[in-house]
Amino acid sequence: MKKKLLSLLLVSAMAVSVAACGNEPSGNNGTSGADSSTESTTEQQSSEGSVENSETDPGEEQQESATTIAEAIADMDYDTTSAYLYDLHLGEFWDVYQEALAEENVSLKYAKEAIAEAKLMEAAVMLPTRSRGGNYAISNIATRSLNTTLWGNDTDRLYSAIICEEPILASDQDALKAIWGESIGTGTYQEKAKAYLTEHGYTLKDTYNYGSYTSDAATWDVLATSKQADSEKVVHTYDGLLEYDCENVQRPALAESYEVSDDGLTWTFHIREGVKWVDSQGREVADVCADDWVAGMQHMMDAMGGLEYLVGADGAHIVNADAYINGEITDFSEVGVTAEDEHTLVYTLDSPAPYFDTMLGYGCFAPMSRTYYESQGGKFGAADYDPADPSYVYGTDPDHIAYCGPYLVTNFTAGSTIVYRANESYWNTDKVNIKTLTWKFNDGTDALKQYNGFMAGELDGCGLNANALEQAKLDGMFDDYHYVSATDATSFMGFLNINRGGFANFNDDSAVVSPQSEEDAARTKEAMNNIHFRRAFCFSVDRAAYNAQSVGEELKLNSVRNSYVPGSFVTLTEDVTVDINGTSKTYPAGTFYGQIMQDQIDADGFPVKVWDATELTGDGFDGWYNPDNAVAELNTAIEELAALGIVIDEQNPIYIDLPYPSNSEVYTNTANVVKQSVESVLGGKVIVNLTECVDYDQWYGTGYDTTYGYEANYDMYDLSGWGPDYGDPQTYLNTFAPEYAGYMIKCLGIY
């Protein structure tokens, strides 16, 4: 099974919105903008932190004496090789994680998940780089007027944005922030914010010029994709059962109410009556009914677009979901989603999922009109579903979907503009502040395009990258209008390829060709399979300097992330006792996930800091970069690899290919920081080859657009990340499951 993959271009770069406190789309999460801006989410405090030194070596991998990886896997096929390498490098993580998943007590599950993630971090198969946001921005957008929960697609919904004709002063943004804090849970913030802005001389408007997206949607079928680049564009066209509002309170949407059985296994939703499906011209095509969620879920499972894992044993625990997906049953009526009548929808689970309601804002729970889908050539059942059939046009563009959400797409020009206009048939039209949403494309070639568009009145917000920051200061826009955008739960990582099979892009073998010789590649593969080499590489990357290229020197630490699951993502709701390396340790209710992860890391002697217990955050400091530790780990790796006949020194370095888009000044500079930092710290014994991608499409082709690990064309790759789908750490950790179940595992070159 595949899983959701986020692009750094889509959810990282720069944050524009001042919405905050809570979470992103990733889920799904986040809005887009290479070298530009995105909608931000959570605000977190930042603090500097230092790495704790240790001479112990936890989790050391033991390979058979004088046996190279090449020799060990010589007679293995791809699946067997993937399983072997997974067990070698991530076996301990997976064993501990299985214990966590078996726990019925939620707090004990969280604690054991934190211990499992400690093992994942110690394996050093990936280096956390950044979250989304944490940069300077200027904007016409009222802070907190958009949803900022930490998971799902609701953070992509923009209809509640409050937009002014004029840039909003930083002092007024601060005042709005205070009003929001006083309004949480009351449902009154929107009106209070509008009143405040009007009283202070601002003119409200009902249009939102939004920028910038960096790639067109590959499909407009939200149920057949796991990519943020698609879902963030389609989410405006439909509503879910429940949705989070701008105060981060989950409220009824197309379900007016719901009940949960005492055993937590039956969830019954009462569907709002009178809601219409319409086409892109606004013409009615059907009534919204309970069967729309049954049809949607079956289509999602038939399409296998990467969302299906969320509804089975790895997520919602819907009865027979996995059996249907795996082809063990073909009768969808045996799956635990049924329409009891026209307006009563029931989900039946095989075991409790306390987070089930937090999943409902994600695309896998989107409704779909059965009759409209069939009118577009769609068929149900895995054997009959065939998107390659010439008669199948569903989701091929905005004119071939049905709408029940706040907007209709009235203009879609590839590589240019998407225009959304208010759906006159929308059931909740009084809550729609924005009547016209215009989304602009940005190919990333001009680092000032976003800023210049804002200054010209063509855009309503602008994240200030390093170039735009200096220009804003020169223009006198910085002092009065700047604010620091919030960070969120999206985690971007630098992935290390332990089983590289691609040395040119899988979709174009003439693009992004590796400069390595066969001998170079073989040596790199051996090095990448040595835990000390991987740690040396991770410890040698100056992530503050890396971040400075996109957010500026002053804020370079704000969005630095030190773990995969943000340390503040969940807290214990009751006291629990767990085993930390043979010592029983009790954690009180309220303990952060990150504290438990740090305790396990400390107990293992791994010299990394992922949690600041004083500031209660895992962000805002560089807990990995440590030149001394990097050199020590490299020396150990050199000794171990020498025993295998592999000499590493200045004359015989290890080469690491890092793709980068040369059309972007920001990302070019970021790649150069990695090169300079690694080569300097490791004394020229590791050389970073910056492999040029002439545009974002080629960059995507090196890894983001791949399906299998063997297609990955890099040794280190920093384009992708993950945003949570729901409110449990397993939404992250499941992505590193073996046997093709973990969607991010392919980033390591396996499965």
Quick gist of this model?
By secondary structure, the protein is of the alpha+beta class. The chain contains 21 helices and 26 strands.
Describe the structure.
The structure is a single chain. Strands 1, 2, 20, 25 and 26 form a five-stranded antiparallel beta sheet that branches. A four-stranded mixed beta sheet has the order 6-17-16-15, with no helix packed on it. Strands 9-10-14-13 form a four-stranded antiparallel beta sheet, with helices on one face. It is built from 21 helices and 26 strands. α3 (78-101) runs antiparallel to α4 (106-122) and α5 packs antiparallel against α6 (189-199). It is α+β, with helices and mostly antiparallel strands and 751 residues long.
Outline the fold blueprint.
Blueprint: E1 6-7, H1 8-11, H2 69-72, H3 78-101, H4 106-122, E2 126-130, E3 136-139, E4 163-164, H5 170-183, H6 189-199, E5 204-205, E6 207-213, H7 228-234, E7 242-244, E8 250-252, E9 255-260, E10 266-271, E11 276-278, E12 284-287, H8 291-303, H9 321-325, E13 337-341, E14 344-348, H10 370-375, E15 407-413, E16 417-422, E17 436-441, H11 449-455, E18 461-463, H12 466-474, H13 478-481, E19 483-484, E20 491-496, H14 518-528, H15 531-539, H16 543-551, E21 576-580, E22 583-587, H17 593-603, H18 627-642, E23 654-661, H19 665-681, E24 686-693, H20 696-702, E25 716-717, E26 720-722, H21 730-733
Parallel strand pairs: 6-17, 23-24
Antiparallel strand pairs: 1-26, 2-20, 3-18, 3-19, 4-5, 7-8, 9-10, 10-14, 11-12, 13-14, 15-16, 16-17, 20-25, 20-26, 21-22
